[in-house]
């Protein structure tokens, strides 16, 4: 668990003008919690933690949430409930995304969360997910980089692509993610060229659909969020471990970012497992996620170059949908 600022902040939840909130993002591969103090339209982190439970295990193939995956995820939810209570959060919002959207038996999951946490989980659409990711990412990067921002939230089951400056203007959710693409195509260790080619076809087709809805050529700053991208950034930086403070806000030349993605895709699972910044729960799927990120950068580079600008760097943010969920609680207060 990462705990940020608890000793310094003390019980700010009782200070006038400060609202302590808890945000939970339950995705295909991870479930994460942010407890934050909202003040003046900003979210000040108190606790940020997450667990890889792979709720979306097999959903692409079966259309249902796996029983063991449900057990793991509900156990994590109960653990988070204890943290939320101990930190004194006044409002809680639980958002479930791709895997839950796609599952026929999601009612079983919703009931389990309600019993564990005492709140109704929201199974949000891909467009809502994209908007929350945009809000969270731009809340951090807008001070240092110009808009319009193309925020790419690369998850386990889906990838959200959203463009805007002060607010989302165009958004699309694509059914490509690290877990989904891995289970469909990249089953060998390391993946064969035929598997990579088949996966690439899927990704490029999805990005063609994205272009029809989001004007990628208008991008001034490409921002990547979520575990695949933060891990790929750590790989590009050759960090001695997962150092969130160095990953957050990192600005990489496009060639360096793309080379790091290609390297992870080509690596064996043993080679990946030896990397000090790669969580064990991502070892099998990071190659698929890296392929998606490579193709996204390549497509945005091509579109912006054709428009006469051409992105030169990509920005990584540790602020994402979790921060967007937390900030939404302030907006609704």
Automatic annotation (TrEMBL):
Residues 35-303 form the Ppx/GppA phosphatase N-terminal domain. Transmembrane segments: none annotated. It comes from Serinibacter salmoneus. This is Ppx/GppA phosphatase. One of its GO terms (molecular function) is pyrophosphatase activity. PANTHER family: EXOPOLYPHOSPHATASE (PTHR30005), EXOPOLYPHOSPHATASE 2 (PTHR30005:SF13).
